[in-house]
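If you are new to this repository, start here. Below is one unmodified record pulled from the training split, so you can see the exact layout before writing a loader.
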Amino acid sequence: MFNIFKKKPEADILNKKYHKLMKEAHGLSSFNRKLSDQKVYEANEVLKQLDKIA
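And here is the target side for that same chain:
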């Protein structure tokens, strides 16, 4: 009934963050390769955290 007060699982939060970072990296890849590589690195770090909890 009151699902707004339930906390989302950490895996869902990290998965959403990973996909957001990868989408940003893809968008940046056409004009700023260095920034795109930084976003991919951040996404890989999130993926490592996701693997630890899964």
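Two things worth knowing about this chain: Residues 38 and 48 are 15 Å apart (CA to CA). The chain is about 75% helix and 0% strand.
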